[in-house]
Amino acid sequence: MKTIKLLILLLPLFCFSQQEKIKQLDINLTNYEYSFPVQFLELSNQRQYLKMAYMDIKPDNYNNKNIVLLHGKNFNGAYWETTIKALTKEGFRVIVPDQIGFGKSSKPDNFQYTFQQLTENTKKLLDHLGIEKTTILGHSMGGMLATRFALMYPETTEKLVLENPIGLEDWKLVVPYKPVDWWYESELKQNYQNIKSYQMANYYDGKWNADFQKWAELGAGWTTAPDYARVAWNSALMYDMIFTQPVLYEFKNIKSPTLLIIGTRDKTAIGKPLVAEEVRKTMGNYLELGKKTQKAIPNAKLVEVANTGHLPHIESFDQFIKPLIVFLKS
């Protein structure tokens, strides 16, 4: 009993120690190197000039097929590293943007985040690169963005791939609305231990390894920086975008051949702590949501990845990449 009490007393000190070891990252990740060269596209959005970071990897064995990888809310383009290597090996040109507010891209002081705005920025990048047709792949929040892209630019979207996208259910129907200021205060409290605890519980079912650690540390690096408040504010604005701009009601209008890659253990749903336990149990059930979404999207295929949570391309890479490559080549 004394040992248990001692461990409880020491736990906060251990967490503090872990946080102290996290490398401090500046607001645009200039002191963090991605695995591939990063370029920047200058944008004029909402009366301000911004820079959108992106990686454009064109292999020597280019097969004249392109794919855009859209990151989730808690990540940036860097976490596609292994996916990029596998796709370029097969001859695909891979374009990986950091959306405004993420990664190495600009973090504006004031910005109205909409999926339409982010989609338009992504289309400007493709126009800049001279890409007329491409597969659009989106993970998590990137899945909502990929859906909006396919709806706005069906002539550009050769194929659509959704990897554990959020927004397969309309959370505003069950979660009480919270203003941007509330989300901002919540984001200011983020640190390494909070990020790790959330990801262990919601992404990896209590598991942890070096790959999971790597991406958690990248997200936590901002929380130790002096200008983290601006990152937190942009993040809060994005929560409002996610809650108020659902895309699932328009799944029926998607014209592109679509592949759903769903880690069926996933239980991700934003706002769970804000609802009663009986409601919480109904949220984020990807085993059911994947099947429901397949029926909602015309010409959609579903690949279920068993014993896998929110990040198949990190947790179960082989089960993610094999069906993806088959779909891209079909």
Query: pLDDT below 50 for ≥5 consecutive residues: which ranges?
Result: 1-17
Radius of gyration: 19 Å
Largest sheet: 8 strands, mixed
The secondary-structure class comes to alpha/beta
Shape: globular
Short description:
This protein is of the alpha/beta class and 330 residues long.
Can you describe what's shown?
The protein is of the alpha/beta class and 330 residues long. It has a domain at 31-170 and 249-329: Alpha/Beta hydrolase fold, catalytic domain (Rossmann fold, 3-Layer(aba) Sandwich), CATH 3.40.50.1820. The chain has 12 helices and 8 strands. An 8-stranded mixed β-sheet has the order 1-2-4-3-5-6-7-8, with helices on both faces. The protein is globular and about 45 Å long.
Helix and strand layout, with pairings?
Elements: H1 2-21, E1 39-45, E2 48-57, E3 66-70, H2 81-89, E4 93-97, H3 115-129, E5 134-139, H4 141-152, E6 157-163, H5 180-188, H6 192-202, H7 210-221, H8 228-244, E7 258-263, H9 277-280, H10 286-296, E8 300-305, H11 312-315, H12 317-329
Parallel strand pairs: 3-4, 3-5, 5-6, 6-7, 7-8
Antiparallel strand pairs: 1-2, 2-4
Helix pairs in contact: 3-4, 5-8, 6-7
